[in-house]
Design goal:
CATH superfamily: Amidase signature (AS) domain
Distance between the termini: 17 Å
Low-confidence stretches: none
Number of helices: 15
Number of domains: 1
CATH class: Alpha Beta
Mean pLDDT: 95
Strand content: 5-15%
Order of helices and strands: HHEHEHEHEHEEHEHEHHHHEHHEEH
Shape: globular
Strand order of the largest sheet: 1-3-2-4-6-5-10-11-9-7-8
Number of strands: 11
CATH topology: Amidase signature (AS) enzymes
Oligomer: single chain
Radius of gyration: 21 Å
Largest sheet: 11 strands, mixed
């Protein structure tokens, strides 16, 4: 089956339950494909071949015994390398954790294991999830499968490139300021950031704890709904987890949007956005109007302040969270230090990369005596204003549509020397993290031969609305999975 890597979750499930293919055969096909394609794409940090085959054998035994298997049983997937996985290296793509093996698994990992998922391995990312291109990985830069001279985005560049290249049916990423949606847009796949508190963060190595969320990256909207259902739910190990019923998201995929009120925030079309991207997104809006949605231009007036406020709050939280990486209990330690103070300094100086150091220093400065009120406190007040903008707008609208990114995927190396230009990649994704609300990126065409992403934003815990609109648009656009034509040896 030559095109097996292009299949979706539901297609794989049918093959397995009809016994046209065994889980072991399927897993071996993916492992062989990774072996052939990943030297070009470079999505994987660790391939867990033995674990994957053992899990596949278990699924085949269950099928042979006549047991009913779930939709995710036997489906090959992979994880961003900041999700703890028992017995497997979890590096955060940093020298600090290069050889660290987690003694436990994140809650989302356990949920997928219970659902029968086949874990193919761990995926590349910007170090400690700080970046927009995977160029901050300690190991290497992942390539965009549509054009290997371009970046896949970040920080979940490995997970999105893996799905776009067919190296995994789906993956999990984390999103602090757009780290699922921005690379999903760059790579032409579906990426969803859930409401803050919808999915447990236990076992996610923290970047900024009030902003981080784990979410699915998939080939289409239905797969996204299936994975989101599997990983959502209350977790007593996460104090920010919300005890609220998890809907059956697949039931939201009706294709109906008639009467839904969708706002088009004018601010997202005014700030440094490519003309072609604007055209693609507005064409998508027209398609939704043809389906009966009521779309109207509106304003979210504090949008322009989201990015600067984010780059105060996120580094401040990072400077606190990353204080634990000191060379004492685990992680990299300088063996030549003369005393404990030099051991701290040398271990952190050698174990952390330049972007991580930059954000730690920015965050520490913002929290320091005399500057806390001027920077951190003011940024938190701005965050409140951004949330109030959304709350007020949601009194009239069910959802909003924006571009996911202001540009297509850029060339590797183009923005490495200009951190501010790199930060602007998250211009349209940061506000929903600041407000804690759900957002999804779905492919909406191409500009200069590269994918363009459409972002849909909804009310807190209204992932059903996101998926409903995204599915209706996907159906109207055409349900065929769009994947790059990769040449492999």
């Amino acid at each position: 089956m030559e095109n097996i890597v292009n299949l979706t979750i539901t297609e794989i499930h049918k093959l397995l339950t009809d016994k046209e293919l065994s889980a072991v055969e399927l897993t071996k096909a993916f492992l062989d494909y990774i072996d052939r394609i990943d030297p070009t794409i470079r999505a994987f940090i660790t391939v867990t071949e033995n674990t994957a085959l053992a899990q596949a054998e278990e699924i085949d035994r269950a099928i042979a015994q006549g047991k009913k298997i779930g939709l995710l049983s036997g489906v090959p997937m992979a994880l961003k390398d900041n999700l703890c996985t028992a017995g497997v290296k979890t590096t955060c793509c940093s020298k600090m954790l290069e050889n660290w093996v987690s003694p436990y698994s994140a809650t989302v990992v356990e949920k997928l294991q219970e659902a029968g998922a086949i874990m193919l391995g761990k995926l590349n990312m910007d170090e400690f999830a700080m970046g927009s291109s995977t160029e901050n990985s300690k190991f290497f830069t992942t390539k965009n499968p549509w054009d290997t001279s371009r970046v896949p985005g970040g920080s979940s560049g490995g997970p999105t490139a893996a799905v776009a290249a067919g190296e995994a049916i789906y993956t999990l990423g984390s999103d602090t300021g757009g780290s699922i949606r921005q690379p999903a847009s760059f790579c032409g796949v579906v990426g969803l950031k859930p409401t803050y508190g919808r999915v447990s963060r236990y076992g996610l190595i923290a970047f900024a704890s009030s902003l981080d969320q784990i979410g699915p990256i998939t080939k289409n909207v239905r797969d996204c709904a299936i994975v989101l259902k599997a990983i959502s739910g209350f977790d007593p190990y996460d104090s920010t987890s919300v005890d609220i019923e998890v809907p059956d998201y697949e039931k939201a995929l009706t294709g109906e949007v008639n009467g839904l009120r969708i706002g088009i925030p004018k601010e997202y079309f005014e700030i440094g956005i490519s003309k072609e991207i604007t055209e693609k997104v507005l064409k998508a809006v027209e398609l939704l109007e043809d389906l009966g949605a009521v779309c109207e231009e509106m304003s979210l007036p504090h949008t322009e302040y989201a990015l600067p406020a984010y780059y105060v709050i996120a580094p401040a939280e990072a400077s606190s969270n990353l204080a634990r990486f000191d060379g004492v209990s685990y992680g990299y330690r300088d063996e030549n230090a003369e005393d404990v103070i030099s051991m701290y300094k040398n271990s952190r100086g050698e174990g952390l990369g330049p972007e991580v150091k930059r954000r730690i220093m920015l965050g520490t400065y913002a929290l320091s005596s005399g500057y806390y009120d001027a920077y951190y406190l003011k940024a938190q007040k701005v965050r409140t204003l951004i949330k109030q903008d959304f709350d007020k707008a949601f009194e009239k609208f069910d959802a909003f549509i924006t571009p996911t990114t202001p540009s297509i995927a850029f060339k590797a190396g183009d923005k490495v020397e200009d951190p501010l230009a790199m930060y602007k990649s998250d211009l349209f994704t940061v506000p929903s993290n600041m407000a804690g609300i759900p957002a999804i990126s779905v492919p909406c065409g191409f500009a200069e031969g590269m994918p363009v992403g459409l972002q849909i934003i909804a009310k807190p815990f209204a992932e059903e609305t996101l998926l409903r609109i995204a599915y209706a648009y996907e159906n109207c656009r055409g349900t065929e999975v769009l994947l790059p034509d990769l040449e492999v040896n």
